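Anyone up for a design puzzle?
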């Protein structure tokens, strides 16, 4: 894996001039990450991005010394001459990134290509940003599994080897803060650290998106998972509710549809207002979710069942809130089967106390590891439509 993050901050004082219309937003930062078979470009803005039309791909123009390129227009944004020099990438897939003022009220983001197979473009909020994923080989020799676009052969039709664990929140983002001051970011990290060796002893390779108290953007978490060529993605979280009596375990998987009552949880974990989650569904519909949704659902069901029925008697009975559909950013940015585990309610005094206890965390890790092993055993049946 080759990672080359680049952060270009906008000028402290926005570029002003007589030609700039009022009411336009600014580009806050441009970042890119280079991985084995794709590069992710993120353009962060200080207000929502409005993509004008579809992304366009243009052939190379030798006369103008222009390489093959991909571009997309964003309305309501001003950059002036700030990025005239462009942003070099030169990672074997992209030559560079250019941003210019295409119209007085719109900018054009241009990705100069060295090689190309597929691309994906989505917009996210909080912070507002445009995400461009460009997939392709970085040499003439196609990578393993090339030819099918960004989605690899679904796990279950190949050996499941790599599990990506994603301890939610971290750094300046504590997540939910529960009874007694228990912080979600600490619970998720402890659970990830406990789960990793248990999966390794069961024959899996494990990748943690974070192994310390650092803050990661949701697009970066899924980028790390894709770069690791993960077969499964398990995002670890802890729940919260206004009523302290609410308690129990629930596990989410992504689907193109979702139950309305799950929007509140999705909004909290996505870090967006609840009203913005419906907009997310329009993006989900653009992705190839259906290819991995049955697999994600089966993994979610197994994790839910193992935790509820397999925890030591000291913690029984466990409240079973079910395996549910939910529109989570970190799930729909992943092209592998992906689930989000809500390991208990920090707003409930009993569960907050348990989640702060290493013995309880170890017991949770045992059950999740057993569920992943069970999934490995029947994943092929699920992928082929045999298991229901």
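Challenge accepted. My sequence:
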């Amino acid at each position: 894996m080759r990672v080359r993050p680049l952060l270009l901050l906008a000028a402290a004082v926005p570029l002003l001039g007589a030609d700039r219309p009022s009411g336009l937003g600014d580009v806050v930062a441009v970042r890119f990450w280079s991985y084995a078979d794709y590069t992710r470009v993120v353009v962060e803005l200080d207000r929502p991005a409005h993509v004008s039309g579809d992304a366009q791909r243009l052939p190379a123009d030798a006369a103008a010394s222009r390489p093959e390129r991909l571009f997309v227009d964003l309305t309501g944004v001003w950059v002036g001459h700030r990025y005239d020099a462009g942003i070099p990438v030169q990672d074997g897939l992209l030559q560079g990134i250019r941003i210019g003022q295409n119209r007085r009220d719109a900018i054009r983001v241009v990705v100069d290509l060295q090689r190309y197979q597929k691309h994906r473009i989505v917009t996210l909020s909080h912070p507002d940003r445009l995400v461009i994923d460009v997939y392709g080989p970085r040499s003439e020799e196609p990578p393993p599994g090339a030819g099918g676009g960004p989605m690899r052969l679904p796990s279950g039709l190949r050996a499941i080897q790599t599990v990506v664990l994603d301890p939610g929140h971290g750094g300046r983002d504590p997540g939910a803060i529960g009874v007694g001051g228990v912080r979600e970011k600490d619970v998720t990290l402890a659970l990830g650290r406990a789960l990793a060796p248990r999966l390794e002893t069961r024959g899996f390779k494990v990748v943690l998106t974070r192994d310390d108290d650092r803050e990661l953007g949701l697009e970066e978490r899924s980028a790390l998972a894709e770069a690791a060529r993960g077969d499964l993605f398990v995002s670890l979280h802890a729940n919260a509710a206004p009523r302290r009596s609410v308690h129990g375990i629930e596990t989410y998987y992504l689907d193109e549809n979702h139950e309305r009552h799950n929007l509140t949880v999705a909004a909290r974990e996505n870090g967006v207002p609840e009203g913005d989650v419906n907009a997310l569904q329009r993006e989900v519909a653009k992705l190839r979710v259906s290819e991995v949704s049955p697999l994600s659902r089966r993994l979610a069901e197994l994790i839910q069942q193992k935790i509820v029925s397999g925890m030591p008697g000291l913690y029984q009975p466990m409240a079973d809130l079910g395996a549910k559909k939910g529109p989570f950013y970190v799930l729909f940015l992943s092209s592998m089967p992906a689930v989000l585990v809500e390991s208990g309610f920090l707003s409930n005094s009993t569960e907050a106390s348990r989640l702060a206890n290493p013995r309880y965390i170890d017991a949770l890790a045992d059950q999740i590891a057993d569920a992943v092993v069970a999934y490995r055993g029947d994943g092929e049946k699920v992928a082929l439509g045999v298991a229901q």
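A detail worth pointing out: The chain has a mean pLDDT of 79.
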